[in-house]
Design brief:
alpha/beta; four-stranded mixed sheet
Length: about 100
């Protein structure tokens, strides 16, 4: 699923750009094959040529893959589309493991 958001990004929140938001439901996609699991992501990357956005925003890294291979493949697809990747939060697993707020 996606929507286009416009905002300030970067470490100091000074880079203004439009981003397509990408999210997926982990429970609904866990048993799907790779192509079906990430079909919405592929659609966003294909539509990047329209120029409607310069970036793709995800809440945390796991949104892009359940395995290291999926994560690397999807990051490569995003790069091939010429999109900037914005990860807005720490991984919940890292936060939980470190017991960091």
């Amino acid at each position: 699923m996606s929507n286009v958001i416009e905002g300030n990004f970067g470490p100091k929140k000074t880079m203004r750009m439009k981003a397509a938001g990408y999210k997926r439901n982990f429970k609904e996609t866990e048993s799907l094959g790779y192509e079906e699991k990430f079909s919405d992501l592929f659609d966003i990357c294909e539509q990047a040529e329209s120029g409607g956005y310069e970036a793709i925003a995800v809440a945390y890294p796991e949104v892009l893959g359940d395995t290291e291979e999926e994560l690397i493949r999807n990051m490569s697809i995003i790069a091939e589309a010429g999109l900037v990747l914005i990860v807005t939060q720490k991984s919940p697993r890292i936060v939980e493991a470190a017991n960091v707020p």
